[in-house]
Amino acid sequence: MQEEMQLTVLFGHYHVWRLFTYPVMVLLPFLLIMTINAQLDQALNERKSELYAAAKQD
């Protein structure tokens, strides 16, 4: 009886844990890539405007 209870608790927690971790594991790399892309995009745009300003001066 005690073992059954422990198993239920274990599997209950496992189920909840699984419910949270899978979306997180899927979303985390996605968010990471989005953040990196945003950073690169910003840096690229700044560089572009610098080059454009330099080209206009010549």
Provide structural commentary.
Keywords: Membrane, Transmembrane, Transmembrane helix. The chain is mostly helical and 58 residues long. It is rod-shaped, with a radius of gyration of 25 Å. Helix content is 97%, strand content 0%. The longest helix is centred in the middle third of the chain and has 56 residues.
Beta-strand content bin: under 5%
Report the uncertain regions.
none
Class from secondary-structure proportions: mainly alpha
What is the percent of helical residues? over 70%
Dominant shape: rod-shaped
Q: How many strands?
A: 0
Spatial gap, N to C terminus: 85 Å
Elements, N to C (H/E): H
**Can you summarize the main beta sheet?**
none
Cα Rg: 25 Å
Q: State the helix count.
A: 1
**What is the arithmetic mean of pLDDT?**
87
Keywords: Membrane, Transmembrane, Transmembrane helix
Transmembrane segments: 20-40
Which descriptors would you attach to this protein?
mainly alpha, rod-shaped, transmembrane, 1 helix, about 60 residues
Quick synopsis:
Keywords: Membrane, Transmembrane, Transmembrane helix. With 58 residues, the protein is mainly alpha-helical. Helix content is 97%, strand content 0%.
Any chance you could write out the topology, listing elements then pairs?
Layout: H1 2-57
